[in-house]
């Protein structure tokens, strides 16, 4: 079986966020760190070089031989957008996404936002909470 390349690291999420060059993205990433901690009740861990993840589950692809561990949810302050990882996908999240604010979705599990001020943070927190509950039902975590 092929393993996922992105793995949990020992890098501090706070130290990583401090290296984000764009001041607005850095401020948004700090706010997201707080929002995710509160919404999940889980400590943040770095996954690869740029993903701040919360929790963990074992992933096994139905379409390929890929498998490994992955965060239940998380975010990444990418150069173009803030990427929010909602691992169950969005099939059951339509009503919440309508209330979220300015965003795009793609990749099956990613919400893309330009800046945190573009979205309703209470709705985002609810999406995160629901996604973690849904993942805990589906996987042994």
Blueprint (SSEs and pairs):
Blueprint: E1 2-3, H1 13-18, H2 23-40, E2 44-47, E3 51-54, E4 57-60, E5 66-70, E6 73-77, E7 82-86, H3 94-100, E8 104-106, E9 110-113, H4 121-138
Parallel strand pairs: 1-5
Antiparallel strand pairs: 2-3, 3-6, 4-5, 6-7, 7-9, 8-9
Helix pairs in contact: 2-4, 3-4
What does this entry look like structurally?
The protein is of the alpha+beta class and 141 residues long. It has one domain: Aspartate Aminotransferase, domain 1 (Alpha-Beta Complex). The chain has four helices and nine strands. The strands form two sheets. The chain has a six-stranded antiparallel sheet.
Describe this protein with a few key phrases.
Aspartate Aminotransferase, domain 1, 141 residues, alpha+beta, 26% strand, globular, 3-stranded mixed β-sheet, 6-stranded antiparallel β-sheet, 35% helix
- H/E order of the elements? EHHEEEEEEHEEH
Give the helix/strand class: alpha+beta
Mean pLDDT across residues? 92
- The level of helicity is 25-40%
The first-level CATH class is given as: Alpha Beta
Shape from CA axes?
globular
Can you count the helices? 4
Quote the distance from N terminus to C terminus: 21 Å
Strand order of the largest sheet: 2-3-6-7-9-8
Q: Provide the domain count.
A: 1
Radius of gyration: 14 Å
* Sheet of most strands: 6 strands, antiparallel
Secondary structure tally: strands: 9
What share of the residues does DSSP label as strand, in percent? 25-35%
Which topology does CATH recognise?
A: Aspartate Aminotransferase, domain 1
Low-confidence parts? none
Q: What is the CATH architecture term?
A: Alpha-Beta Complex
């Amino acid at each position: 079986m092929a393993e996922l390349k992105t793995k949990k690291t020992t890098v501090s999420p706070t130290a990583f966020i401090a290296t984000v060059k764009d001041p607005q993205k850095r401020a948004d990433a700090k706010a997201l760190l707080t929002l995710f901690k509160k919404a999940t009740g889980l400590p943040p861990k770095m996954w690869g070089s740029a993903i701040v993840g919360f929790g963990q589950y074992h992933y096994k692809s139905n379409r390929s031989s890929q498998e490994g561990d992955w965060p239940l949810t998380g975010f990444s302050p990418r150069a173009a957008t803030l990427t929010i990882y909602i691992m169950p996908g969005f099939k059951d999240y339509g009503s919440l996404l309508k209330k979220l604010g300015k965003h795009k979705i793609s990749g099956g599990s990613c919400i893309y936002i330009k800046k945190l001020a573009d979205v309703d943070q209470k709705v985002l927190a609810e999406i995160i909470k629901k996604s973690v509950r849904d993942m805990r039902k589906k996987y042994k975590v």
